[in-house]
Amino acid sequence: MSDNPFDTSRGNGGETHQHIPEKGPHEGLDHLTTNQGIRISDNQNSLRSGERGPTLLEDFVLREKIFHFDHERIPERIVHARGSAAHGYFELTESLSGITKADLFQRKGEKTPVFVRFSTVAGGAGSVDTPRDVRGFAVKFYTQEGNWDLVGNNIPVFFIQDAIKFPDLVHAVKMEADRAYPQAASAHDTFWDWASLMPESTHMLMWAMSDRAIPRSFRMMQGFGVHTFRFVDAEGKSTFVKFHWKPKLGLQSTVWDEALKLQAADNDFHRRDLHEAIEAGNFPEWELGLQLFDEDFASKQPYDVLDATKIIPEEVLPLKIVGRLVLDRNPDNFFAETEQVAYCPANIVPGIDFTNDPLLQGRLFSYLDTQKSRLGTANFHQLPINAPKCPVMNFQRDGQMQMNVPTGRANYEPNSLGVHGEGGGPRECPVTGFPTFSAASGKEEQGDKLRIRAELFADHYSQARLFWKSQTHSEQAHIASSFVFELSKVGLKQVPPRMVGNLLNVDPELAKRVAEGLGIDLPQKNPAAREPIDMPPSPALSIQKNMKQTIEGRKIGILIADGSDAHALQSLVNSIEDANATAFVVAPKVGKARLSDGSTIKADGQLAGSPSQIFDAVAVLLSGEGTGILLKEGAAVQWVMNAFVHLKAIGHTPEALPLLHKAGVEPDEGVVALDGAFFEAAAKRYWYREPNVRMLA
Predict the structure, then answer these.
(1) CATH 4.10.91 residue window(s) in the chain
(2) Taking Cα atoms as reference points, which of 532, 572, 547 lies closest to residue 475?
(3) What are the backbone dihedrals phi and psi of residue 307, each rounded to the nearest 5 degrees, phi first?
C-alpha cells in the first residue's frame, strides 16, 4: 500500500468518498474489492433504480457485504467459552528418544511453534475473568508430523470418572434452565444437588473450593493433561505418562473477597494481564514436567491410574522436566485466532497414544463433534424427515433450531427435584433399555464390553482427604469457607446436609466447620462405596507452600497525592522496575499531581478506577498535605483497607499513618516503611492476618 493513496470527495447526498485518484496508478493493492476480487467503484451507496427508486437485487456488492456481516458471529463454545490465547514455542531441553518416537521430543534444543488458549469453564464468552472456576489450559503443538493438542486444565483431576456424566455436570453447573442465572457460578441449587449425589466429584470439589480456582494470573497457574496417556517408542514399547506445566513465576492466587472485587474493577483482568505481559516483553513461561511409569508401578498403587479423579502425588513419582513453554506473541485478531481455534484431544502424533481412561475416551469423540456443531445445529433429529415416531424423553437441551419447549429445570440426573415437588424427568431402565452385546467380537479384542467401572474407581474420598491434609491451615479455612458460601446459595434443603455427609468421609473437622458455617446440624456420614485410606500429605498440592517469595512479574500500586515526595517516588519506581516488576502510580486525579519539588506528574490510573485489588502489593507515598486530602476520600480509605484485608504488603510514609489508621490497618510484618523492608514484604501475602479481617469457617 502506498503512504497516501486516497482522494476525498463528497457525493450527491453529502456522503464522504475516499477513492483511488483517477489519474494515479491502478495496479496496486490499494483497491477495495469484493471477496471474489472484483474491484468496487462505490462503497457508500446501494444500486438503485433512479435517485429515489427501489434498491436492485442485482447489487452483488450490497448482497455480499450484508451477507458476510449477517454471519460474522458463530456459536460460542458450550464450555470454555471465555478464553484468551497467545502464540509461542515449546523448546525441548532433554531428548526423550528412548521413550517416545514423537518427533517433537527427539532433538534437544528444538523449538516447536504452539498456540495456547486459557479459559474459564462455566461462564459464557461475555462473562468475567475472575470467578471461582476451573481454568482451561489447552496447548496446540504445530509439529512436523501434524498437530498435537494437549487439552487440559489448571487442576489435575476432574469431577467425573466417565464421560457419560459430562452433560449432567455441565447442565447442573450452568445457569439454571428455567431462569438463566447465575452466570459463571457454581454457588446454586442444581450444581450442588448434582455434586452431592456424585461422591466421585469430591476430590475435584476440594480443588475447586481451594484458591486454585481463583488464580492471580494465567502466568502464575499450573497446567495439567489430567489423564494418563501413553508414550510409544520406535520398537512399540509403551510407557504411561502424565503431563504437568509448571509456571516459571510460581503459583499465585487471589483471595475470595479480592476476586469478587476484581470482577467489578476489571472484567478482563486475566486477559489484560496476559496481553500486557507479552506486550512488555515479560514472556510467560512454564516447564513441562512428566510423570513416567509402567504397568508394574500402576498395579501397585491404591487407586486406578486411569481414573481422572485421582493424581499420582509428586512425592510418590517425581516430575521429569523435559522442556519449556514460552508465549511471546499476542494474536493479531481475536476472532480469527482465539475464537476460531479448535482443540481436540484426538489430535495426536506418532509416539503419543491414548489409554482406556473412560473420561478421555469420551473426550476423543466429543471435541470433534463440538467443533462441527459450531457451524451447524445439534437438533437435526428434530427435522420431520429425521424425527422418531415414538416418544423422545431425555435431558438433551437447547441448540440452534430447537423446536421443543422443555419446562422445568430438570436437565440433569441424578437429581432429587421430585422430592421438592418438581418434575424430575425420565430415568434409565435396566429391564427394557438397550442391552449392548457384551462378548468379545474378535480375537484381537480382550475382555467383554461392559457398562461397568473398575473396582478401584469406587474410592472417591482418599485423594480428597490427601488434598485436604496437604493444605496449610489458611488454605483449609479457604476451602471450608468456600463450601459454606456456595452451599448457602442452595435453596433445596436436603442438599447441604447431603454434601456435608459426603465431606465426613474426607475429614470430620472439615465437615463440622462447613455444618457450623451453614448453621445446620452435623448429619450422619454418607456410606462410602469404598472405604477411604490415609495417604501421606503432598506439599506439591499447596499453593502457599509453593509460592515464590519474589516481586518479579508482580504489579505494585503506588498511591500519591499533592505534596508526595518527588525523589522518593522516582526512587521507588526505579527499584520496582529493577526487580522486573511493574510500578503503577495512582492519584486522585489522573491529569496532574503536584509533587514536593513543584513538578507535576501524570498518574497511570485514577483512584476510583484503580482499586488496590489489581495490585500484588501497595505503597502509600503521601505527605501530610496529601494525607489530609485523602482522609476525606472514601475511595482512598477503601483502597488501603482492601489491600490490608486482601493480605497484601503495605509500605507507607510516616505521614500516611492517619489514613492507615482510618482504614483499620493494624501493624504487622506486612505493614512496613518504604525502605528495603518493603520489597521483602511485598514478595508474599500475610495469611496469618486473615482471621483478624474476615470470618472463616
Answers:
(1) 1-47+57-72
(2) 547
(3) -95, 115
CA distance 245 to 288: 5
Per-residue pLDDT tens digits for 36-64: 878 888 888 888 888 888 888 888 888 88
In the chain, CATH 3.40.50.880 sits at 555-692
How far is the CA of 424 from the CAs of 72, 198, 407, 420, 486, in angstroms? 39, 17, 11, 9, 23
Partner residues linked to 91 by β-bridges: 111, 324
User: Using CA atoms, how far apart are residues 669 and 644, in angstroms rounded to an integer?
Assistant: 12
598-619 tens-digit pLDDT:
999 999 999 999 999 999 999 9
- 544: how many CB neighbours lie within 10 A of its CB? 18
Q: How many CB atoms lie within 10 A of CB 378?
A: 19
Pairing of β 650-652 and β 671-673 = parallel
Cell 423446536 found at: 403
Q: Is 166 annotated as a binding residue?
A: yes
Q: Under CATH, what is the fold of the domain 1-47+57-72?
A: Cytochrome C Oxidase; Chain J (4.10.91)
Q: Is 63 annotated as a binding residue?
A: no
On whether the 555-692 domain is CATH 3.40.50.880, my answer is: yes
Residue 380: its pLDDT value, please? 47
Shortest CA distance to 620 belongs to which of 587, 647, 596?
587
How much is the pTM?
0.82
Domain with CATH 2.40.180.10 in the chain: 83-180+213-382
DSSP summary character for residue 55:
B
Cell of 100: 517416545
Based on the residue annotation, tell me whether 80 is a catalytic residue of this protein.
yes
- Is 374 assigned to a binding site? yes
Q: In whole angstroms, give the CA distance from residue 665 to residue 693.
A: 10
Q: Report the SS3 class of residue 676.
A: helix
CATH superfamily, region 83-180+213-382 = Catalase core domain (2.40.180.10)
Q: Are 487 and 515 in contact (CB under 8 A)?
A: no
Query: Is position 502 annotated as part of the catalytic site?
Result: no
Write out pLDDT tens, residues 137-176.
Answer: 999 999 888 789 999 999 999 999 988 889 889 999 999 9
From the candidates 17, 26, 45, 80, which is the catalytic residue?
80
Catalytic residue among 17, 26, 87, 153: 153
Residue 70's contacts (CB-CB under 8 Å, 6 or more residues apart) are none
Rounded to the nearest 5 degrees, what angle is found at the Cα of 89, between the Cα atoms of 86 and 93?
Answer: 145
303 is in an annotated binding site: no
User: Is 395 annotated as a binding-site member?
Assistant: no
**Coil, strand or helix at 296:** helix
